Amino acid sequence: MHPTKWIAWGLLVAAGAGIVAASYYKELQSEQLLADQILLAQKEAQRIQSDVILFSESTVPGGLPFAAFLGELGVDPLTAGQLVGAARPVFDLRHLRAGNRLALGRSVLGELREVRYRIDADHILSIAPQDGEFRAEIQTIPSTTETAGIAGEIHGSLFEGVAHAGESPELAMRLAEIFAFDLDFYTDPRPGDTFRVVVEKRKLASGETVSYGHILAAEYNNNGRIYRAVLFHDLSGHEAYYTPEGKSLKKAFLHSPLKYAAPVTSHFSTHRLHPILKTYRAHLGTDYGAPIGTPVQTIGEGRVVFAGPKGGAGNLIQIQHSNGYQTYYMHLSRLLVHSGQRVEQGQRIGLVGMTGLATGPHLDFRIQHNGQFLNFEHLPLPSADPISRRDWPQFSSARDHSIGLLPDLHATLAKNSPSPIPDSTINR
User: What's the whole-number mean pLDDT along residues 321-334?
Assistant: First the structure.
């Protein structure tokens, strides 16, 4: 055979061998790649089984023990007992609140990995397996605080207006408390009233608002009459709400010594027939008929100068207030304060009773100014102290800043209003 042909044949054989070798190499590469992918898939499946937790949430019912509730969610009795035992050192399960949320976390294979109970806006009870047993801890929910401007219009009640603005009833209650001395939000609101608020909002990473902080400024337009409030901390750290002119929104005294409405059973009088002694004598107070155990509150801040039994007055609490005022709370079934104690306005100080000379359960309430008893039913309630001259520079600066944060009313209302229906969609 000609040498040239031998060379050509050799090249052909070599090329064929190279092709076969390359084919085997690619096959080996493919097999290795497949093996690597199978290994990665196995590792990912193992990771999913060990790390991925699928949570299902439920609402805690009323009157059902924790273990029984877990049983309804598919947790076996032995595991439920272990969960209860693990939680006991860190949280009293008798304090579970109906309506709170509980979440069960399970692996993709159905193994129990965690139980999470929302205690309140700030804390979660977490129970999870660790080293062959369940361990419990109370975790703090991470959150951020931001200042937000909110505005709305009243069509029915304040609560409905706040809800329509996308906020919770808590904000409506807080707003009502601020203006409580000037407005009765059960009877005063009118359709078309508007409100504006600057409030601190605590939010979770998900954007959910879990609570409200301070309301820095508020405005309520009641049928054309505008009420405004600004929060101010004075140099001593005391905080209160004031008008932009520096007058306190808070009155020195509340309208009633009872937290809930109660009928007046005997009025202030200088000549009344005593129901027990059957003689005419002065009754220098106001009697409120209420069941035994009804909470009694102090109408103003002050100092308890006497708390104890006092003859015909029964169990008596006497409180010294500023500017020469004293108040008396008589016939109490129980005293919740002691002599010398400082009390805040609205603080619960005792319970209605019928001790002493009393024909039935009631509160005999009296108010005295500079030694003279007054008719509380017709007493103009004095305002609390205004901003002092010393605090005025700091107040005016805080006022201007907070009021400047109030949102634009018309823009906010327009944003929250339903979108108009385009003309093209209306049947003609």
Answer: 93
